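ARCHIVE CARD
Drawer: 12
Card no.: 0347
Subject: one protein chain, sequence and derived structure
Cross-reference: see card 0346
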Amino acid sequence: MVTFDSLRREDRSPAPGWRWFVRWLRRRLPTGLYTRSLLIIIIPMVLLQSVVAAVFMERHWQMVTERLSLGVTRDIAAIIEVIDTFPQDADYSDITRIARDQLNLQISIEPDGDLPPPREKPFFSILDGILSDEITDEIRRPFWIDTVGNSNLIEIRIKLDNRILRVITKRSQAYASNTHIFILWMVGASLVLIAISILFLRGQIRPILNLARAAENFGKGQKADNFYPRGADEVRRAGLAFILMRERIERQMEQRTAMLSGVSHDLRTILTRFKLQLALVGDNPDLAGLNEDVNDMQTMLEAYMAFAKGEVEEDVGELKLSEVFEKLEADFELHGKVLTYSIEGEDHISVRPNAFLRLVTNLASNARRYADALHIEAKHGAKWLTIVFDDNGPGIPEKYREDVFKPFFRLDSARNLDASGTGLGLAIVRDIARSHGGNITLGDSPLGGLRATVRLPA
């Protein structure tokens, strides 16, 4: 039986060369359609914005800062040229006024002295590096700058011949300080577009998820009457194809059940006549074999009907594992044998009750027939219900472990029907397990006999 897990295991097969990275990345990425669709939308948008911010914005930011810093530097160079060329009043009031009113620079002329020691340059400051380069190229005098002390102002000190020029200007005059507005608009617009994409994507993904859920429930034998095709044209066609397929399967099952019911009625009528005629004859040793044949035919007919009809029409209900195992334990005690069990996780399970009881009973009856002790271990997890049957009987050879699930297959053809049954017990078990969306496998038991592992969706 090909299952989703088996396909995933095949997908993990090793590949040479660079493909191992693709395999590794595929295992790390989300597997859901909705999440992958979101990544298809979000990742290219994030990459595009990163490239724009790293290339365009960086160049734009640097170019504008260079132009502004060059303008401030040339204004300072002009002031220095005026101070050195033309005579000034004692307190430099005229040049200070001109710089304040015309150039928007606050300057002061201080007595000769030493410049402060250089400050540590910030790691990510474009302004500090560009402004320093411009002053070096345009003014060519010793200088000291502070672009960190006050976030809104820049202080520049330039050593003249016998004095120090101190200049204070706004950061916005030498630095492209409004670039973050563009980034905020870009990020904000992207978030709005992502939100709109998520809303539209949810509307497109929901019909696909509903179709997958309906197909999964139908595979488990559950009804999916509330499913209707929605979404895009392709999804609607897939949903309509699923509904038609489901109706054909249900119609075939109904026809099979009706036919088998008619056959069963006719055969049971004939068997009833046989039994009545044998009863009228009375106790006759010569007819003992015929009585046994009639009883065997009755048993075989009921087994064939149970196998062919199945329990697909049964609704899902609640069961307690502990109650089921307690009944099996009492049955083993009546036959002088031992059954132990353990339950890990939630005791209540959601299954088709009659079908599940038949599954567990058939496996326990086989163990009781051929073994003296049986241990049942049930683990009810978030996704799977796993029940392991370990007995100490003779087991089944490995080469026959798949054949025993075939209808009418018996390991020992020489055994009579009373000893080995009709060969449908394990076939019914696998049919019930798969109708629940699970499976059953056989292996070696640590008790020395056979291990049967039933795995059903929780």
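Annotation on reverse: The first strand starts at residue 106 and ends at 111. The mean pLDDT is 80.
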